[in-house]
Design a protein that fits this description.
It contains 13 helices and 47 strands. The chain has five domains: 148 residues, Galactose-binding domain-like (Jelly Rolls); 112 residues, Immunoglobulin-like (Sandwich), CATH 2.60.40.10; 280 residues, TIM Barrel; 104 residues, Immunoglobulins (Immunoglobulin-like); 104 residues, Immunoglobulins (Immunoglobulin-like). By secondary structure, it is mainly beta. The radius of gyration is 28 Å and the shape is globular. 47% of the residues are buried. Helix 1 packs across helix 2 and helix 3 runs parallel beside helix 4.
Length: 805
């Protein structure tokens, strides 16, 4: 039996036992997991931009649960998919286990601590403080399960499915099942393995007896033959299940279903990456783990929605940056057809923050790699493991031994997938090369690594291409199957000649260079794809992609300054709305033929723009501005057509080149006139597409959209809130404070906007729209109908219905 263990928890600040002697009132809050405690903390300027100005802290989660007397002859454990961070677990007041890593799952056996036939208490302490370079969240932010098994049982990670031999006529399905006997007598049982299709039909079956002495474990291997296999791919994510039955008839001990897919992987420099024999280029998005206004809480629907939005925007691959992906998101990738590069660590033995995982790495890395592979082994979406991100040791020959050890550990556990390392040649050699380039870098005002990389501009590529960096990183690159380059697309051609056997991927790149990079990816067979920073916006690294404006005669303003909360560098913002960069990318990928109009934010008079290297142009898809007529606006039209004509209220402003030769971007300076802005793309004398923006009149309505009208009980729904005029045009220039009420069996979990710098919180019943939009997350508390009502001054209230079944 494996059941969700998410309900009935309380959370409170973690204080010493001595502090508890002085009563301070009841600070416990009832919560249902997943839960992020940090998102409710008051932000402070001293907390820093990396974590979105959220302070660290320590919290305690507690739960009381009944343990029946019949469990005395069972094995009982609790499985945590993720606790951030430094989890300490106590059962009935006694220490039961710990887990430092905030992103890998772990299992705590409860048997030694239980009082049978009575209520039992479990407590989990977690803490986060100066240990992350992005918003970390805090607490039990992923699902928790309680498992109760017989003394003879399949181990927690005991089913491993591989497809070693596949053709169109049949696929060989090799299933290794680990069994253990914790009884005091020898047990003989039967293991039956059945392949089941999506319709529940049995397709193949093998059965065999297994005898286990007391305390023994064994691996039972079954080899099944699946006729006419339906392959798993991005376009056709077909899946099957292995049903494992231990025992038979009235003595059936355990049944477990495990999903898997049939697909083959190949790589070489001549053909690149092939899945099921077909070459594919990775249109990749780097994605952090948070869920925007929900904080770090990894609700299954939130993870699924993120994958849906990324795929609809043209991505076919995700790099989990810079930590193992949640099981919930991996489930979505398997179901929806999204390839995954699952990343292990952001640091090894050299820390990037005073109290980060480097303090635990030497002792814990092997257990965390085991947890990573255990989570991923049966998943068709996972095609590669990344053993690190911008690891500082990657440029040192002695320290590179860690990379070799991690890679070999993974190969011993899973030889079916590829291994990469997301190496920045600049970061890996920074302490050795910086002095050589100091004159070109100059003095920096803020001194962070992102500021340094911005100041260096194109010099980053030059440094990564240097002979010194090439030599210093060669050994680290040699231990992996795919060479990963962060911000070093100049290496792609160089590697082809210097290292002809290398297969290369852009593990992290700048959005604004996607046209240049994608041209290299499509032309060079040994380069298998690109992962942009970043596909989905996120909390923390505040202002990384934000453009700000300051006096022309003063030092540049700081985009990362308080109260920045978002990185603002995602193709998709935290509410799920696609930004201009997303449509540009879709055109560059060759997936969109219609043009897209992006209008530049009007710069304040006498002020100049300042931004880091991750910023897109400061544009939005709107023709609604609070400006005088005739005020000049910069307009970009993205198109793969060779020419674009732009018209304002039917009057042509002329034509400009676009397409590949003009980097897919036609530029215009347009005197603002309310009305209609129309872009027409032309190929010679023929019109090939058009796009239009219209000015919104005065706000007239609130428009609500629900992602799913019917949801399972205790699941979540996303409700988009838009301020629109009488014609339904989004009023991007007329933001309103909206308030929300929920009637019926549901509750408001979060309300917020994509505003990148704000003092507003996400756990209030009111929030100001940004660009005319906001987002609410509603959780069902029981079966039934819930009514969501949204109000704003001067506008009629709007309602939406959410049914829980």
């Amino acid at each position: 039996m494996r059941t969700l263990f998410n309900g009935g928890w309380t959370v409170q600040p973690n204080v010493s036992v001595f502090s508890q002697l002085v009563p301070k009132g009841d600070q416990k809050n009832e919560v249902t997991l997943p839960h992020d405690a940090m998102i409710t903390f008051a932000r402070t300027e001293s907390s820093g931009a990396s974590n979105g100005y959220f302070p660290g802290g320590a919290v305690t989660y507690s739960k009381v649960f009944d343990v029946p007397e019949e469990w005395r002859r069972k094995r009982v454990a609790v499985e945590f998919e993720g606790v951030y961070r430094d989890a300490m677990v106590y059962v009935n007041g006694v220490f039961a286990g710990q887990h430092p890593n905030g992103y890998t799952g772990f299992r705590i056996a409860l048997d030694d601590f239980l009082d049978y036939g009575k209520p039992n208490a479990i407590r989990v302490d977690a803490r986060a403080h100066m240990d992350s370079r992005w918003y970390s969240g805090l607490g039990i932010y992923r699902d928790v399960y309680l498992t109760v098994t017989a003394l003879t049982h399949i181990t927690a990670s005991g089913i491993r499915i591989s497809t070693p031999d596949v053709d169109d006529e049949r696929a060989v399905i090799a299933v290794a099942t680990e069994l253990v006997n914790e009884d005091i007598s020898t047990q003989t049982t039967r293991l039956t393995t059945t392949i089941v299709d999506a319709n529940g039909e049995d397709l193949a079956r093998v059965s065999s007896p297994v005898t286990l002495r007391p305390g023994d474990s064994a691996v039972a291997r079954h080899r099944l033959y699946l006729p006419n296999p339906k392959r798993w791919s991005v376009d056709t994510p077909n899946r099957y299940s292995v049903r494992s039955e231990l025992g038979e008839g009235e003595r059936l001990i355990e049944t477990r279903d495990t999903a898997f897919g049939v697909r083959t992987l190949q790589i070489d420099p001549q053909n690149g990456l092939r899945i099921n024999g077909e070459s594919i280029k990775l249109r990749g998005a780097c994605v952090h783990h948070d869920n925007g206004i929900l904080g770090g809480a990894a609700f299954r629907r939130a993870e699924e929605r993120k994958v849906e939005l990324l795929k609809s925007a043209g991505f076919n691959a995700i790099r989990s940056s810079h930590n193992p992906m949640s099981p919930a998101m991996l489930d979505a990738c398997d179901r929806l057809g999204m390839l995954v590069m699952d990343e292990s660590f952001d640091m090894w033995t050299r820390g990037k923050n005073p109290f980060d995982y480097s303090l635990n790495f030497p002792e814990w890395w092997e257990r965390d790699i085991e947890a990573l592979v255990e989570k991923d082994f049966n998943r068709p979406s996972v095609i590669a493991y990344s053993i690190g991100n911008e690891i500082l040791e990657a440029g040192n020959a002695l320290s590179a031994k860690w990379g070799r050890a991690i890679a070999e550990k993974i190969r011993n556990l899973d030889g079916s997938r590829f291994i990469t390392n997301s190496i920045s040649g600049f970061v890996a050699t920074i302490s050795d090369i910086l002095e050589d380039f100091q004159e070109q870098v100059g003095d920096l005002e803020r001194g962070g690594v992102n500021d340094l990389m911005t100041a260096m501009g194109d010099l980053m590529n030059e440094i990564s291409l240097s002979d010194q960096v090439t030599a210093m990183t060669e050994e680290s690159h040699s231990v992996v199957d795919i060479v990963g380059h962060n911000y070093a697309d100049a290496r792609y051609l160089a590697d082809q000649s210097a290292f002809p056997d290398r297969v290369v991927v852009g593990t992290e790149t700048l959005s604004k260079r996607i046209d240049i990079i994608w041209d290299l990816v499509t032309r060079l067979p040994h380069v298998i794809g690109d992962f942009t920073w970043t596909g989905y916006d996120y909390l923390g690294e505040a202002g990384l992609g934000l453009t700000v404006y300051g006096p022309a005669n003063e030092p540049s303003p700081d985009p990362t300054a308080y109260p920045g909360i978002l990185a603002w560098c995602g193709d998709i913002d935290i509410t799920g709305y696609r930004r201009p960069a997303s449509f540009y990318r879709e055109i560059v990928y060759g997936l969109r033929s219609q043009p897209f109009i992006a209008v530049g934010q009007p710069a304040p008079a006498g002020r100049r723009a300042a931004a880091l290297d991750w910023a897109w142009s400061d544009t939005t898809d709107s023709w609604s501005w609070n400006l005088e007529e005739g005020a000049p606006l910069n307009v970009e039209v993205y198109s793969d057509a060779p020419e674009v004509e732009l018209l304002v209220n039917g009057k042509s402003l002329g034509r400009a080149p676009a397409g590949h030769a003009a980097r897919f971007r036609a530029n215009f300076t347009v005197p603002y006139q309310p009305g209609e802005l129309l872009a027409i793309t032309r190929n010679g004398n023929s019109e090939s597409g058009r796009s239009v923006l219209r000015t919104a009149a005065a706000p007239a309505d609130l428009r609500l959209g629900v992602d799913r009208p019917v949801i399972p009980a205790r699941d979540i729904a996303f409700v988009t809130i838009e301020v629109v005029d009488a014609n339904g045009t989004l009023a991007t220039n007329c933001d309103r404070t909206v308030s929300i009420d929920v009637d019926g069996p549901a509750e408001l979990l979060a309300l917020g906007s994509a505003r990148p710098s704000t003092n507003e919180v996400y756990n209030s019943h009111s929030h100001t729209t940004f660009g005319g939009r906001a987002l609410a997350v509603i959780r069902s508390t029981d079966v039934g109908e819930a009514i969501v009502t949204v109000r704003a001054d001067g506008l009629a209230a709007a309602t939406a219905t959410i049914n829980s079944a």
